[in-house]
């Protein structure tokens, strides 16, 4: 935003429509790549954000990630599905993220870790986040609590898959203070 001359003192005071209009005033003159991670609903790029639709003429690209096939279908013409990891690769990634000797020092923690890994269903993001979250956990009680959190229902969000919400909740709940 700063490189495009969009972020000045008045930027924060602008409405969403004003911001979209300013962005749209700058981007058509440039070639760009826009990345959106983990979207959960269709986003109207031009209206909501001010991003001109990519085309062969402007040479721009928009890339987004979502776990929703519904959103993917509504957002664009090309899609690429990232497959889940098989059980062995998932366990390897999870162990790598947990690090240290915690898993090898306590057979009960090792058993719980395998259960947590299975609950991540081979999703690399989930394996990374949960593995990193669990890296400093050294008691059986902490590992059991993680399973309890992952087993709770994260309902009420029809377009959001329950599994990823459970994973994010565990990661969020593990933050130690408001700043984190």
Describe the structure.
This protein is mostly helical. The chain contains 9 helices and 2 strands, in the order H-E-H-E-H-H-H-H-H-H-H. The protein has helices at 16-26, 45-49, 69-75, 87-98, 102-105, 107-119, 124-134, 140-151, 162-173, and strands at residues 33-36, 61-64. Strand 1, helix 2 and strand 2 form a beta-alpha-beta unit. The longest helix is centred in the middle third of the chain and has 13 residues, at 107-119. The model is unreliable at 153-160 (pLDDT under 50).
Can you give keywords for this protein?
single chain, 180 residues, mainly alpha, two-stranded parallel sheet, 9 helices, elongated
Question: Sheet with the most strands?
Answer: 2 strands, parallel
* Widest sheet, order of strands: 1-2
- The topology string of helices and strands comes to HEHEHHHHHHH
Gap from first CA to last CA: 25 Å
- According to DSSP, the number of beta strands is 2
The helix content is 40-55%
Question: Please, how many helices?
Answer: 9
Q: Indicate the mean pLDDT.
A: 82
Instruction: Give the structural class.
Output: mainly alpha
| Backbone shape | elongated
Please report which band the strand proportion falls in: under 5%, 5-15%, 15-25%, 25-35%, 35-45% or over 45%: under 5%
Q: Outline the low-pLDDT stretches.
A: 153-160
| Backbone CA Rg | 21 Å
